[in-house]
Amino acid sequence: MLEEELLNLQAHEQLRSLRVFSPEPGPYAAKDGAKLLLFCGNDYLGLSQHPRMIEAVRSAALRYGVGAGASRLISGTSDLHARTEARLAALKKKPRALLFSSGYAANLGILSSLAGKEDLIVMDKLCHASLIDGARFSGAHLRIFPHLGYDRLEKILKAASKFRRKIIVTDSVFSMDGDLADLKKLAAIKKRYGAWLIVDDAHGTGILGERGAGAGEAAGVESEIDVLMGTTSKALGCLGGFAAAEAPIIDSLINHARSFIYSTAIPAILCAAIDEALNILSEEPRLRMKLWANVGALYQGLVAQGWIQGQALSPIFPLVVGDGARALQLARKLEKQGVWAPAIRPPTVPRGKARLRITVSALHEFEDIKKLLQILQNLRKDYQTH
Ligand SMILES: *Cc1c(COP(=O)(O)O)cnc(C)c1O
């Protein structure tokens, strides 16, 4: 029975339900009548509410309407789609790019088009669910290596000569831990074993690297990565996912990616917004500087309080507290004091590793970070696991 199954989830503190937020200007939203300071989400530069983005959508809607009306291969590809894809390709220093309606759809399409029964996909244990689903959908053999365990990855590749294609898959910034893959090392390993490298740069696109092009730029290995997947739903403040790669790969996706072919095109108004986001990226570098200043301030505070150990820097901070119930309780205590950060529980993270997932953005002021740190200071004795 469905009801029983749901009750069972509830009994194990695993039931999820939707919460309703009314956005307010800045890093705020109202929930159940209370105004909350948000430390969640992935709108790292605050572009989702940037006046230039809103204006870009407004003026594009007057000319292009709201919906695309058809899939990309029918009549859903507008001049705005073509322009945005060319700009995303340039951002990633690849000849071509292809937009999907979401990052989830992009990963499903990329892995299921480029891998099949004769192939081996080797994936980091903490890769995003969309990559796992894409690998399963592809029908390829799937092996998992421990998180950042590249010695093990090499062992797997060494014994994989019988496969047509060997494909290494990783997130660049891991979405629930905020740590980074070593793309330099992976590029070397890929070369050594004649494998392909696919990098999901959902959280790096827009914030990492000198131009904000992402983790490939930051590590200086863009040309070694076969497929750079990115999202336009996070730091770019819109919706959508994309693949940037050489022409034969993009043409394969156009011909084989079912999540691309059998789905209505992403609306042109969003292409206009993505285009404006790319303009803002190059014209307002202060947003990236503000973000990284905030990351640094929060990082220092959390290390000083003992919540996290020294780790690679990203805007994602996991405060690991143990089981799901404890994480929920901690989130509720923050909410009572006017701050919202979500509890992340199994199965999204491993059992015993439930956490508060704090993210910071360019919309935060130092005062906001100070407020969060003050609240956490008073809770640390009860919740820290080490
Ligand atoms: C968010 C995310 C996705 C999915 O992107 P959407 O645009 O939200 O569908 C894929 N991979 C990673 C690592 C993500 O964090």
Structure characterization notes:
By secondary structure, the protein is an alpha/beta fold. The protein is 44% helix and 17% strand. It has helices at residues 2-11, 51-64, 72-76, 79-91, 103-114, 129-138, 150-158, 183-192, 215-219, 247-256, 258-261, 268-283, 285-304, 324-336, 366-383, and strands at residues 22-24, 28-31, 34-38, 96-100, 120-124, 141-145, 166-171, 196-200, 227-231, 241-245, 316-322, 339-340, 343-344, 354-359. The strands form three sheets. It has a seven-stranded mixed β-sheet with strand order 4-10-9-8-7-5-6, with helices on both faces. A four-stranded mixed β-sheet has the order 1-2-3-12, covered by helices on one side. The two termini are 40 Å apart. The mean pLDDT is 96. The chain binds pyridoxal-5'-phosphate.
